[in-house]
Each structure stands twice: as structure tokens, then as C-alpha cells.
């Protein structure tokens, strides 16, 4: 099969010259813009005529154009002329010049059509033979023209495929990412040169091997399932992060994608996809994660130290912040918060009373009622804590917990007097935990009131001063899930353990 257009048309013209009784023949095709008919190939023309034909074109975009070839192209109807002189009056000056220059006495012009669209015209004429052209001749050419149209279309389609393949190959050969195709059994049928800088193999070392040959043993079953999913469900494999093995045996991280590949009849013939090297990014992420873990550990240790310093100044409330943090974490978990938010709540709970470090121990441990000045100083500890943490650019959520843990949803709290959604959820959680722990434990000015009393109090304040959802979560922990305040470091003989 000839699929080059020029070679194809030349072959057609040679066949017409040998088998048909016409002096000359030519094919004129519309250009890409479909605004002109241009000479493409012919037979029987002398060099002068050939040169003339190559330099002339008939305009399809000019509505006043009256040439026979243009008319046949537009109307898709053939024309048979046995005496050119009979139609000279109907021709434009340009068309008349063309007929006279070519010396035509009689001609047939038929449209070349494919799927209802005009592609060009086929013209034959006699300049030497006196034999008149007939309807039979025209019918014969009308049978040939559609085959020319089909052949031209196939050649155009083939050329487009080849051009597409060349573009793909050019892009593939120069792409930094690994581009591959797999056969129906998961074997590599093509892989671009990017395989070598990324995985150390030459393309010829990989083609013929199976995809699972370059994956870890742990991932084999996963990729077999993925391949079957693409094959059976005709679904695209989207950005699967996986490990491929370098030629030197080291593991490399890749983003792996793939799509089903079909032949011209729609049959599945494998998979085509891309491996994008993420190794450097992954290593950076892991290094960053390790750094963040170290930072978080250091932060946690710092917060623990601050918590111990605060509590060491008040023996009555020793362990208070840790117990508040424990209950606050449990409430946050009950509410389904993320691990990141829960950790911030834990750290905030551990240092929520950091502002008390500025309050004299005599006030913190005073067994009798506080005076107005002493009470005002005690109520200042959220603001003092806020200022301490702000100076060292502490984590904002933790700063807010310290600042807001005595705020109430009806606006009756302190130091800001804010209400409702202006109070962060993290602060509302620590507020409930702080309230329960404070009422249930010993204080310098009163003995412990017990868990039952504390729970009844928050039940009364539910939806008024304390957030309803937070209170409900706290009640479930104690009444349904046997929550205990006891810390891992506390023995059962602890003086405060009786209310656990």
C-alpha cells in the first residue's frame, strides 16, 4: 500500500495513462486553507505546460470565480465538454486563458469527494485525438474519483499518524521523565532514554523485562492489581507514589501514572505512562519531617519544663496542668479533631497557667479569701501568659489557649470578655477540662469537691458559659468510657487519687 500522497497520486496517474484512452490527465487538490485549487500531479503534459500548471491556482474563496474546475469542486457535479468554444462565453478571463494555454479541445472534470467533502478534481482531456468524449468515459471517471478520495484520505491519515509518532518520539527522546509502554502481559515494549539517568539502565536493558522486575517485592502485588484494573476496567492509573529499584540496587521514589493503550480496532494492547522521579523531593520531605520531629520534641520538652516550673510554685495544684492536658486531649479525640490539633491542645493545656509564674507564691497558696488586689492579680495570669509567649513568637494556637482558657461563650469570662465563635475551639476544650479538674481537686481554700460535683456543674453550664459539644464529649468520657485523671507518673497512694 502506497501511503505517501505524492507517490500515491503519481502511481494513480501512471495507471490512468496506461489503461485509459485520454491524451492527458491531472489532479488538482484544495490546499490546506481550502481557499485554492492547485495542480498536484498529471500526465501527458510537455515541460512548458507542466511549468505553467505548477504556477497557477484557482481561487475557491472568490464567489465571482467562474472556472469549470472551481464550479465542479463547489457543486460536486461532473462536467463533460466536447467543444470548448461552446462554453468560452461562460468562462472568466483567467479560466479562458487557462483553456487556451493548455490547448484543450474537449475535457471531462469530475469531483474528488470523501465523506461528502470535496478534496479536489480529476481532469482528463484530448488535444490530439479526434475521438469525442462520452458519458461512458465520464461514468468511468466518476467511479475512479471516489477511490482516489479514499486513497488520499488514507495517505493523509497515515501522514498525520507518522507526524504524531515523530512528535511523540521527539518529545519522548528528550523528556526528563521516563515514558514507557507495557504489553498485555506487563512487559516493557518501549522506554525512553530518560531511564538511564533516572534508574541506571539503557532502554535495551529494560525492553522485554516486566514492570515488576524493577519494583520492590512488597509492591509487586500492588502493581499487578493496578495493571489488571487498567486492563479490565479501562481506567487510568493516576499519580501512584511508589518505589522503583535503580540498577545499583538502591530505592528511588517515583510518581507512577498510566493509561490503557488500544489499537485501531479498540483492542487493549497494553499501557502507556510516565515515571516521574520524586527521589530528591522525597528525601527533602523526609529530612524536613525528621527536623520537624526534632523541633516538636524540643518544643514538647520545653513545654514540659515550663509546666513543671509553674506547678512547683504551688504544691496544691501540682499536676493540675498535666491533668488538664490529659482531659483536653481526650475531649479533642472524642470530637474527632486531627492529630495536629490534638497535639497543640496537649501543649496548650500543659502551660495554660504559665502566667501564674508572675504571681507571688503567697497568693497562690493563700488558704483564705483573696483581697481585691490579690484577686485582680490572679485574674491577670491569662494576659501575663499571653505576653510571655508572644515575646518569644510561640505557636499561635497555644498562645490563644493560654489567653482564652478563662473566656466563656456568654461573654462573662476574662480577660477579653469575648463570646461564642470568637473563642477558639481549642480554648473552649481547655476551659472545660480546666473547670472539671479544678473543682475535682484540692485547693488551698477548699477541699476537693469530687468528679460527680464537677460533672454536674458543667452539665448546668452546658450551652450557657461552656460550649455544649465540648461538655457533651467530656461527660461521655467520664460516664461512658471510664476516663481517669490519674497520670502515668502518679501512684495509687497519691493524695489526690481518691477522686479519680
From TrEMBL:
Residues 4-147 form the Phytochrome chromophore attachment site domain. SMART domains: GAF, HDc, PAS. Residues 295-490 form the HD-GYP domain. This is Response regulator/sensory box/hdig domain protein. InterPro entries: GAF, GAF-like_dom_sf, HD/PDEase_dom, HD_domain, HD_GYP_dom, HDIG_dom, PAS, PAS-assoc_C. Residues 237-290 form the PAC domain. Residues 317-439 form the HD domain. Residues 164-234 form the PAS domain. Coiled coil: none annotated. It comes from hydrocarbon metagenome. CDD domains: HDc, PAS. Gene3D superfamilies: 3.30.450.40, Hypothetical protein af1432, PAS domain.
Amino acid at each position: 500500500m502506497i501511503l505517501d500522497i505524492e507517490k500515491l497520486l503519481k502511481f494513480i496517474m501512471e495507471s490512468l495513462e496506461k489503461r485509459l484512452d485520454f491524451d492527458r490527465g491531472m489532479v488538482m487538490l484544495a490546499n490546506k486553507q481550502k481557499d485554492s485549487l492547485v495542480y498536484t500531479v498529471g500526465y501527458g503534459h510537455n515541460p512548458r505546460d507542466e511549468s505553467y500548471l505548477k504556477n497557477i491556482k484557482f481561487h475557491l474563496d472568490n464567489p465571482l470565480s467562474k472556472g469549470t474546475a472551481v464550479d465542479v469542486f463547489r457543486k460536486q457535479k461532473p462536467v463533460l465538454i466536447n467543444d470548448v468554444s461552446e462554453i468560452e462565453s461562460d468562462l472568466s478571463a483567467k479560466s479562458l486563458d487557462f483553456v487556451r494555454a493548455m490547448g484543450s479541445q474537449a475535457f471531462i472534470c469530475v469531483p474528488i469527494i470523501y465523506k461528502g467533502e470535496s478534496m479536489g478534481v480529476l481532469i482528463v482531456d484530448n488535444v490530439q485525438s479526434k475521438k469525442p468524449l462520452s458519458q461512458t468515459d465520464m461514468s468511468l471517471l466518476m467511479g475512479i474519483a471516489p477511490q482516489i478520495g479514499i486513497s488520499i484520505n488514507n495517505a493523509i491519515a497515515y501522514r498525520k499518524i507518522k507526524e504524531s509518532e515523530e512528535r511523540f518520539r521527539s518529545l519522548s527522546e528528550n523528556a526528563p521523565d521516563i515514558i514507557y509502554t507495557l504489553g498485555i502481559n506487563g512487559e516493557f515494549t518501549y522506554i525512553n532514554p530518560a531511564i538511564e539517568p533516572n534508574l541506571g539502565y539503557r532502554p535495551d536493558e529494560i525492553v522485554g523485562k516486566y514492570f515488576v522486575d524493577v519494583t520492590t517485592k512488597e509492591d509487586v502485588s500492588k502493581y499487578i492489581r493496578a495493571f489488571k484494573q487498567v486492563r479490565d476496567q479501562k481506567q487510568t492509573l493516576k499519580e501512584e507514589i511508589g518505589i522503583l529499584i535503580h540498577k545499583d540496587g538502591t530505592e528511588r521514589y517515583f510518581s507512577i501514572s498510566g493509561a490503557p493503550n488500544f489499537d485501531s480496532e479498540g483492542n487493549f494492547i497494553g499501557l502507556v505512562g510516565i515515571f516521574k522521579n520524586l527521589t530528591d523531593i522525597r528525601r527533602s520531605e523526609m529530612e524536613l519531617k525528621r527536623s520537624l520531629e526534632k523541633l516538636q520534641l524540643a518544643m514538647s520538652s520545653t513545654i514540659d519544663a515550663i509546666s513543671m516550673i509553674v506547678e512547683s510554685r504551688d504544691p496544691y495544684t501540682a499536676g493540675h496542668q498535666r491533668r488538664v492536658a490529659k482531659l483536653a486531649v481526650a475531649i479533642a479525640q472524642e470530637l474527632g479533631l486531627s492529630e495536629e490539633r490534638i497535639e497543640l491542645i496537649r501543649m496548650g493545656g500543659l502551660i495554660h497557667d504559665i502566667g501564674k509564674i508572675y504571681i507571688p507564691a503567697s497568693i497562690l497558696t493563700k488558704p483564705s479569701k483573696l483581697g481585691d488586689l490579690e484577686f485582680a492579680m490572679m485574674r491577670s495570669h491569662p494576659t501575663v501568659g499571653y505576653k510571655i509567649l508572644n515575646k518569644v513568637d510561640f505557636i499561635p494556637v497555644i498562645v490563644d489557649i493560654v489567653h482564652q482558657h478563662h473566656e466563656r461563650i456568654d461573654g462573662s469570662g476574662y480577660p477579653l470578655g469575648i463570646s461564642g465563635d470568637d473563642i477558639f475551639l481549642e480554648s473552649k476544650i481547655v476551659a472545660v477540662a480546666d473547670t472539671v479538674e479544678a473543682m475535682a481537686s484540692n485547693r488551698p481554700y477548699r477541699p476537693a469537691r469530687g468528679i460527680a460535683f464537677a460533672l454536674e456543674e458543667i452539665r448546668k453550664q452546658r450551652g450557657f458559659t461552656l460550649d455544649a459539644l465540648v461538655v457533651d464529649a467530656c461527660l461521655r468520657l467520664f460516664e461512658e468510657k471510664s476516663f481517669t485523671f490519674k497520670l502515668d507518673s502518679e501512684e495509687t497512694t497519691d493524695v489526690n487519687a481518691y477522686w479519680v
